[in-house]
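Hi team,

As requested, here is the filled-out complex form for the fe (ii) ion run. I kept the field names the same as last time so the parser does not choke. Let me know if anything looks off before we queue the next batch.

— J.
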Amino acid sequence: MKGEGMKSEDTEPLRYMSGFGNEFSTEALPDALPKGQNNPRVCPYGLYAEQLSGSAFTVPRRSQRRSWLYRIRPSVTHEPFHPLNFPAETLTADFTQGVVTPNQLRWRPFSIPSEPVDFVRGMLTICGAGSAASKSGFAVHMYTATASMEDTCLANADGELLIVPQQGGLRLFTEMGLLEVAPREVVVVPRGVRFAVDLMDGPARGYILEVFQGSFTLPDLGPIGANGLASPRDFLTPVAWFEERACNFTVMHKFEGQLFAATQAFSPFNVVAWHGNYAPYKYDLARFCPVNAVSFDHPDPSIFTVLTVPSDTPGVSVADFVIFPPRWTVAQHTFRPPYYHRNVMNEFMGLITGMYEAKRDGFLPGGASLHLCMTPHGPDTATFESAIRPDAEQPAHLGRDTLAFMFETSQTPRVTPAALGATNIDRDYYKCWVGLKSHFDRDWRPAGQQPAAEAGADAERERQGGGGAANGVERAAPAGANGPVTVAR
Ligand SMILES: [Fe+2]
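And here is what came back:
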């Protein structure tokens, strides 16, 4: 964002307010918030009062989401909106038509263009369900950007955006203030909040989950207790920041997947003070406190849920944002990688850094995979063969830079023609499982029940990492005498 004019403060360092879903109050100028009421006849400093409602007026109090903005000129002051032609029809918010496939899908890293492309123009819809028009379902997008948004902002009427940077830091100008978000952090922009994206350190790439219904919230912890996973205090919301700047500004409005543009003669980032609980926030994924198995077996990946969008069915989300963070893996007599799986839910995965524990090859940072309802998936051949070796019994660390994530959804997404026809789609993905060979041994017997002549052979198979007897709890070996080792992956 360029230009001169009065600004509320220098942008370095940015300041944030801590907490999830709090009722925040913030002023860039002293006493800018009205005292004791929301909408006085004349506001302090001659500001306009404007409410931004993120929930229906009459929802239960616990679901109320709204903020009051006090701004130099109101957001209603603009020329009429006109449709924008979006390049190659790569953006959509209606999945009533679309492609379904039971095949596993994977994309190699999405290439970053060489020409100037900003965050909005660089969005490519991969898949989704429902439609923005019906306020049902979601969309998954990739973004690649090589240019900052210049005197342009976006307001997304279609839903709430969870942005997951994979490469390149982003500075977000929002009506509520400034945010900076780097890879390994995420940011949520509520429906309708105007924002612009500057690139902080060169080309940028990342993932977006857009939910047409509901909004992101923290999962309940159940028996985990009061602590663990994502802590509310680690979610950061910007303090009020404004600029009073005359310019030819374009406000883009995404409405049912279409982009519209309107011009106005001033910056929309002119909110001097605001209060409420409807605002963007960021979260550092390194703050996530994983809870996992410390004895045996593999918890379901829901144990790594950072944020969830509940549906009307208890326990079933519209979408979950799940991460697979760096951590120790210690479960004994256990196949430690993610299990082979078919799921009524749908799993879109991305990789931010490092190597994902279930894939030795082909799943790369900036790429993605998609396994739809009941599509089989799981560790590739190399991962399986490695994980059944006896030395995989020792405590190990997955590597400090590994960070994968999953958007898990209840409605089955349809894939866009643009994503299916992308040049980086991996048409050989299925081959990563073709090499899984049979380890079946019809003569296998539980420990202690083999004929004497076969006991030695069974022990030999175990020593070599094969044979079903390794799954017998009674045969479990304790951790190696040499202590923990770090597995470089
Ligand atoms: Fe799965």
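Two things worth flagging: Residues 79-268+279-284 form a domain with the Jelly Rolls fold (CATH 2.60.120.10). The pocket of fe (ii) ion is lined by residues 341, 343, 347, 377 (CB under 6 Å).

Thanks,
J.
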